[in-house]
Amino acid sequence: MPDDKKLRLTDNDDKMIEPQGSYLYEGALLQENLEETTLKAPREKDLPEDDGPRSSLWRDTFRRLKRDKTAVISGIILLIIILVAIFAPLLAPHDPYTVALADRLQAPFSPGHILGTDQLGRDILSRLMYGGRISVAIGALAVAIALILGTTIGLLAGYYKGWVDTISIFGINILNAFPYILLAIAIIAALGPGLTNAMIAIAIVGIPYYARIVRGIVFSLRERDFIQAEKALGASNFRIITRHILPNCLSPIIVAATLDVGWMIVMAAGLSFLGLGAQPPTAEWGVMLSEGQEFIRNAPYISLLPGAMIFIVVLCLNFLGDGMRDALDPNLKN
Fold it and tell me: By the number of CB atoms within 10 A of the CB, which of 87, 108, 307, 321 ranks highest?
């Protein structure tokens, strides 16, 4: 090959390379040049932006949830009920505790009382609005208490195993040995009837539900490679539990909590119906059911209307929970 012939590398190198001999192979020439070439790492700003797998998961979940029309409609109905309950003092046409015996037992669509009045002349629509504040709040708070305590017990029992798991599962089995309603009644019998005690009772009854869910998930995660890698790198148990195990438990916990709120509302209303929860004249759906049972023949709407509200809220929660379960299921992504 002639000495004045010049070769140019093709991978973005503008330098001209002189051959070292007349019979130098081009491959050897390229190899010599590659040894002198340094590879530059891409700068951080040149890398594509990534929101992370966690944000992508919730974005995909929300997108799939929007496709479920039943879940979306249920969520809208629940949002309307919650907003009406929150702004009940502004929206209610009458004071829910004002007694007007002259207007007692008026039928629905009576002048001034769209849904009628009860046996004491109190406006039922106003009492339903105020009752939603108590009933929904009891269900949500009871679920929050049960979720926090149950999740904590499940995380510790599933991660540490040994005597921690033995003691935890022993306590869970004791609570599960009793029917839920009887256990709640027994707790209220010890604490005394009242709205707060009823909430505490149904929260305690719900703890085993979340503890078992989380414990089972932790059992399946604690031996995974990414957990073992964190341990090998010297990560603390607290970091492993809070940063790696707990986030993987959120999806089933959220679905379980959504479905459980309806059950807690029914439980609270049942205890109030038995006289163990909210006490008259409190505007609460269970109390309204209990007060209207004496007039079920003459004025059935007194009991039917709060019962219908409980039915609608629980039904919407179940539809929303089913939709969230399907949206969070990785097997249904496609």
Answer: 321
Token pair belonging to 228? 């073992």
pLDDT in tens, 260-318: 898 999 999 889 888 888 888 888 899 998 888 888 888 899 999 999 999 999 999 99
SS3 56: helix
Q: Residue 107: count other Cβ atoms within 10 Å of its Cβ.
A: 11
User: For domain 60-332, is the CATH number 1.10.10.10?
Assistant: no
User: How far, in Å, are 55, 187, 231 from residue 258 at the CA level?
Assistant: 21, 24, 34
Using CA atoms of 84, 85, 89, 90 in order, give the dihedral in degrees to the nearest 10. Answer: -10
Where along the chain do its domains lie? 7-40, 60-332
> How many Å is the Cα radius of gyration of the chain?
32
Task: Express each pLDDT in 168-184 by its tens digit.
Answer: 889 998 888 888 888 99
Q: Residue-wise over 115-130: b if at least 16 C-beta within 10 A, else e?
A: bbbbebbbbbbbbbbb
- The DSSP result for 201-221, as a single string, is HHHHHHHHHHHHHHHHHHHHH
Show the tokens assigned to 83: 């907003």
